[in-house]
Structure formats: structure tokens, C-alpha cells
Write a structure and sequence with these properties.
binds S-adenosylmethionine; 7-stranded mixed sheet; about 200 residues; alpha/beta; 6 helices; Rossmann fold
Length: about 200
């Protein structure tokens, strides 16, 4: 069995909707982003593997606001789903009543074309938008986790994150396929006050 199959079956065995859950578990076990009672924004949340992990780790007082262009089939009173495109300007209006968040997560990914420079560009557009949303919705001291596809704009993005967060690390969890260009940027302790 190759690595990809192992994480696929492991996620299934543990009742998760996607292998992505195991990536978030590995990241959170190492960087401690989620805590009981936290209020979390999950960008690109479908089919809901990260939401399952967030609900487990934030407990009965935790809440998730989930956004995706695709439908989501999780019914839980702690989850509020907003079906929208994050690039749409209405996203800030939609989030107004839920701010501030303790953690903003983004596992958003474009539809892959197979052309790495194009996929990198589209992924960076989503990551820039996720950072912009985090800056408007995070509480001071809050955390931000974002997926990007590696490429030449990565360095500047990480540099930018460092202006706004105390600690920034780039990490690829074991559950992420080595063949995939995806990596995660982990940003801890937002230094500013959000500007809704
Ligand atoms: C890798 S999947 C996320 C998997 C999810 N974290 C999970 O654990 O189930 C990426 C998601 O990003 C969403 N997405 C891509 N572009 C988006 C956009 N502009 N606005 C909102 N969601 C977007 C896709 O629809 C897709 O569901």
C-alpha cells in the first residue's frame, strides 16, 4: 500500500470525510492552533474533513463558520455554512455578525490544471484573499493557517505574513502527498487589531 492509500483508508477508518482531516490533526498536534471553546472560520471547507477535526478539538462550546463555493453536508448546531465565493466582495458583509474569530483556516485550492505556474498563481490569489479576510476578522493573538501551492511567490507571501504575526512557519504534514506541491503556512499570534 502506498502512502496515499494509507492516509485515505486511515481517514475512512476514523470516520472522517476526507484525508485532509489527518493533515489538520498533524498540523494542530505540532503547532497547537485549536483550543476548547474556540470560534473558527474555515475557508474552503467542503466536504468538511477539517470541520470534523475543529469540532472535536473545540468541544461543545466551539463554533465554526464555514465558507465554500461547493455544498457542505454537515448538520451540526455549532456549524454555520455560508455558500459563497471568497473572492466575492460580499464575503465581508456575510461575516460581519460572526467576528472576531480565534482562528482562521484556509485549505482552499483552485481546480488544478496541471500547469504548475498557473496552479501556483491561482492558489496564491486564494491565499492572499484568505490573509485579507484573516486581517479583517481575527482577534488580536489569533492564529491563521493557509494552504498554498509552492512556487516563486511563496517567499514574498511568507514575508508578508511575518509582518502581521509573531510566529510564521512553513510546514508539510506527513499526510500531504509528497507528489503534491501543497504546503501550509502556519501563522501564530496576530499582532494587530482586526479592522472589520
Ligand atoms: C482541498 S478542498 C478543502 C477540503 C476541506 N478542508 C476538508 O477538510 O474537507 C478545497 C476547497 O476549496 C474550495 N474553494 C476553491 N476556491 C474557492 C473560492 N473562491 N471560494 C470558496 N471556496 C473555494 C473548493 O470548492 C474546495 O471545496
Amino acid at each position: 500500500m502506498n502512502k496515499r492509500d494509507y492516509y485515505y483508508w486511515e481517514a475512512k477508518r476514523r470516520g472522517y470525510k476526507s484525508r485532509a482531516s489527518l493533515k489538520l490533526i498533524q498540523i494542530d498536534d505540532r503547532f497547537y492552533l485549536l483550543k476548547s471553546g474556540y470560534h473558527v472560520l474555515d475557508l474552503g471547507a467542503s466536504p468538511g474533513g477539517w470541520i470534523q477535526v475543529v469540532l472535536e478539538r473545540t468541544g461543545s462550546n466551539g463554533h465554526v463558520v464555514a465558507i465554500d463555493i461547493a455544498p457542505l453536508r454537515i448538520r451540526d448546531p455549532r456549524v454555520k455554512f455560508l455558500r459563497m465565493d471568497v473572492l466575492n466582495h460580499e464575503v465581508f458583509e456575510g461575516l460581519k455578525e460572526y467576528v472576531p474569530f480565534d482562528v482562521v483556516l484556509s485549505d482552499m485550492a483552485p481546480k488544478l490544471s496541471g500547469v504548475s505556474s498557473w496552479d501556483h498563481g491561482r492558489s496564491m490569489e486564494l491565499a492572499e484573499r484568505a490573509l485579507e479576510i484573516a486581517m479583517h476578522t481575527l482577534r488580536t493573538g489569533g492564529h491563521f493557517l493557509v494552504k498554498i501551492f509552492r512556487g516563486d511567490m511563496e517567499k514574498n507571501y511568507v514575508k508578508k505574513c511575518k509582518q502581521y504575526f509573531d510566529m510564521v512557519k512553513v510546514h508539510k504534514p506527513k499526510a500531504s502527498s509528497p507528489k503534491s506541491a501543497e504546503i501550509y503556512v502556519i501563522c501564530k499570534r496576530f499582532k494587530l487589531e482586526s479592522t472589520p
